[in-house]
Write a structure and sequence with these properties.
By secondary structure, the chain is an alpha/beta fold. The chain contains seven helices and eleven strands.
């Protein structure tokens, strides 16, 4: 990578076209070897609203005239069941049954089958240009898995991957992973159970995997672990795994 000469600005060094469509501050950090990822905490938000925010960020990435940073959207959702692109086994009757329980229901373009999102679950939607990292969807999913395993290790929990999707503690899934990637721009992401009401999962076969269960940080540790407690460890783990610099931004929706 080009090195800045004494008295030379980033703009002079790299020219007028921002690398990976980010601003010059991003380029300065790249000169130090790390991509900048902005962190936006949406708080508790409906799934539909969060989906609109994701779509807005994806459109900005796809609009090559825009200068938009890679972004992590963090949130909790109100109770909602979502399904991925394989939707045949979820007819309208099943959708109505789940809605009658007091949850919303969304059909999405992510990978995977059905899962639940709700209070007490830390949801992370990375909106990334993989051109700034590595143009490989397989690599990206593996890095998400490593991020969650690293987070669990920070809590003293031994987690691992399996032949099934997500991150597991024994035969119980602690984190669901379901992504979409178009033109190497990612959306959707991970859902980590912190102190989720696990009874919501009793109404479905989570991710379509028969014979296995679900767990949470709280269940594994025998104490209450909230999403605010888990968030710094998630950001630290993501930064370490993706070798990136995290930039908090409360006003970046």
């Amino acid at each position: 990578m080009s090195q800045l000469r004494s008295g030379q600005s980033c703009a002079q060094s790299f020219g007028e076209t921002p690398l990976c469509r980010l601003g010059y501050m991003w380029i300065c950090l790249m000169a130090l070897g790390k991509t900048t990822v902005r962190v936006v905490n949406l708080g508790r938000i409906s799934y539909g609203q969060a989906l609109q925010v994701q779509q807005k960020h994806v459109r900005q990435h796809l609009d090559k005239s825009s200068e938009v940073p890679n972004t992590l959207l963090l949130c909790e959702h109100y109770p909602v069941y979502t399904i991925g692109i394989r939707q045949a086994q979820y007819p309208a009757k099943e959708e109505e049954r789940l809605k009658s329980l007091g949850a919303e229901f969304f059909r999405t373009n992510r990978g995977g089958l059905i899962t639940f999102h709700g209070p007490g679950q830390l949801v992370c939607y990375p909106i990334l240009d993989l051109g700034c990292f590595k143009k490989s969807v397989r690599w990206y999913v593996c890095e998400l898995e490593k991020t969650v395993i690293r987070l669990c290790n920070k809590f003293g929990i031994k987690a691992a991957t399996s032949s099934d999707t997500g991150v597991w503690v024994g035969n119980n899934k602690i984190c669901a992973i379901g992504i979409h990637c178009g033109r190497y721009i990612t959306s959707h992401g991970i859902a980590l159970n912190c102190n989720t009401d696990m009874r919501w999962f009793d109404n479905i076969v989570p991710c379509g995997i028969v014979g296995k269960g679900v767990t949470s940080l709280s269940l594994e540790l025998g104490r209450e672990v909230t999403t605010p407690e888990a968030t710094p460890r998630l950001l630290e783990s993501f930064s370490e795994t993706f070798n990136c610099h995290m930039l908090p931004d409360k006003d970046g929706t």
